[in-house]
């Protein structure tokens, strides 16, 4: 019985590594849109390495991760990354400033661009979410009513990261516990 309790305790310890990465829906309910005040949306938020930005947008938009120079001039011809699936997740994997702009230059010039200052370093940060891939069954609602005054900040996603050395320790401990019970040691 004692070995079973020890096994349960060790399983919880090995597999319950907390992740404090937050997921932010860019523009909140307004989404990634020309009518969204993205500067106000980002103001006061603290972004950390491992956090995830969720961009939701219509087919007339795209998300381009760009350099500072491209951000300032709204030039997306040499984007670092380009997304156009309407439901894009970007994990903030490096400390520093990240820049995003709509691929439509007129939209970008009209304010559809986002600068986020990312705090922390990658070595001490939790693992972020994987990049989203478009799915044929994706029924995620797209923003339809646009306003410039988002009322809430998306909640952070507190979760657990499974794996690492814990994924090896648990089976070994289980086998050892079973051996102890079988041989009455």
Automatic annotation (TrEMBL):
Compositional bias per record (Polar residues), positions renumbered to this chain: 136-157
Swiss-Prot/TrEMBL keywords: Signal
Protein name (Swiss-Prot/TrEMBL): Phytocyanin domain-containing protein
One Pfam family named in its UniProt record: Cu_bind_like
Region (Disordered): 121-157
Gene3D superfamilies: Cupredoxins - blue copper proteins
CDD domains hit by this protein: Phytocyanin
């Amino acid at each position: 019985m004692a070995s079973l309790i020890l096994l349960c305790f060790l399983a919880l310890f090995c597999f319950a590594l907390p992740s404090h990465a937050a997921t932010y829906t860019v523009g909140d309910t307004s989404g990634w849109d020309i009518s969204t005040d993205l500067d106000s949306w980002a103001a006061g938020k603290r972004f950390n390495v491992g956090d995830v930005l969720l961009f939701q947008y219509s087919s007339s938009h795209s998300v381009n991760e760009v350099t500072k120079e491209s951000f300032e001039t709204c030039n997306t011809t040499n984007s670092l990354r380009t997304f156009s699936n309407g439901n894009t997740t970007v994990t903030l994997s490096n400390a520093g400033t990240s820049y995003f702009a709509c691929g439509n230059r007129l939209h970008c010039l009209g304010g559809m661009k986002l600068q986020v200052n990312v705090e922390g370093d990658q070595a001490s940060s939790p693992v972020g979410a994987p990049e989203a891939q478009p799915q044929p069954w994706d029924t995620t609602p797209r923003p339809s009513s646009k306003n410039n005054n988002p009322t809430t900040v998306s909640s952070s996603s507190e979760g657990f990261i499974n794996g690492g050395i814990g994924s090896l320790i648990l089976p070994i401990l289980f086998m050892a516990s079973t051996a102890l019970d079988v041989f009455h040691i």
